[in-house]
Design brief:
With 309 residues, the protein is of the alpha/beta class. It folds into three domains: 88 residues, Winged helix-like DNA-binding domain superfamily/Winged helix DNA-binding domain (Arc Repressor Mutant, subunit A, Orthogonal Bundle); 101 residues, 3-Layer(aba) Sandwich (D-Maltodextrin-Binding Protein, domain 2); 97 residues, Periplasmic binding protein-like II (D-Maltodextrin-Binding Protein, domain 2). It is built from ten helices and twelve strands. Strands 4-3-5-12-6 form a five-stranded mixed beta sheet. A five-stranded mixed beta sheet has the order 9-8-10-7-11. Strands 1-2 form a two-stranded antiparallel ribbon. The C terminus is likely disordered.
Amino acid sequence: MNPWHRLPPLRSLRVLEAAVRHQNYTRAADELSLTHSAVSHQIHALEAALGMPLLRRAGRQMCATDAGRQLAHDVRAALDQLAAALERLRDHDSANSLTVSVLPSFAAAWLVARLGGFLERHPGIELRLESTPAVSNFRSDGVDVAIRYGTGDYEGLISEKLFDDELFPTLSPALARRTRLRNPADLARVPLLRIRQQPWAPWFAAAGVNLAEPRRGPVFNDSELALQAAIQGQGAVLARGSLTALKLRAGTLVVPFAQRIPSPATCHLVYPPQNANKPALLLFRDWLHEELLASPPMYCPATNPPRTP
């Protein structure tokens, strides 16, 4: 008798693989577009079918048992083989298609304005741009390559650093005139906008001022939204240079102080090993490096807050 009839549902195996990889039901649920309770139910059903525990709670995390870890590893390998087989079938149709995931902030600040050049050079490529803060998993979202800020340490993925970045305060010309900033300590008189996981404290230390990390005011999870709030005069924002270049050139934002610090997050091109030889990706990668050399996203203006007599 064919042993396949004894296999548990593929969905429960996918849920197990995600839960073991994340060690967290909520993150697994987010990845698979399920609810927390659905993930829990699938895991319990799989454990009942196999007659053994696969995950155990340890504090706020779920830790895999030896059996759970091994099964998740084998499921991952099987899913990779299945994905590779399907990809080979689609190669004829997909060789000239490319899905690129990119943060909305970088897409708006640099990439979108240049994509026309890529499409003009390679008219046969079907390019799909997904502007999203969500992290690509490359297994189920159809993304071929992503442009992301981070450390570059992405397990199981190829990561190529595109450029370093730097951080400095910026604000609208009107707010700069109104507050008459003379030195970094004057920022104590200005509302400070916050970007998630981008604290002000390192810049304060580099500027030699004794200001506490702001604890009040809005927190943005997208840099472009924070920059738009700064343009509207809502406060000063500690911004990445690569994302402010166009706005500084246009004069909608100004830089009150010369002090800059390296950004701990750098920009990377990220893709899974199985996409390394995909023709459309190779063409996009080469074009991207050429564009970055010809037109770096960084812009270093002079310190330029408008002064009031």
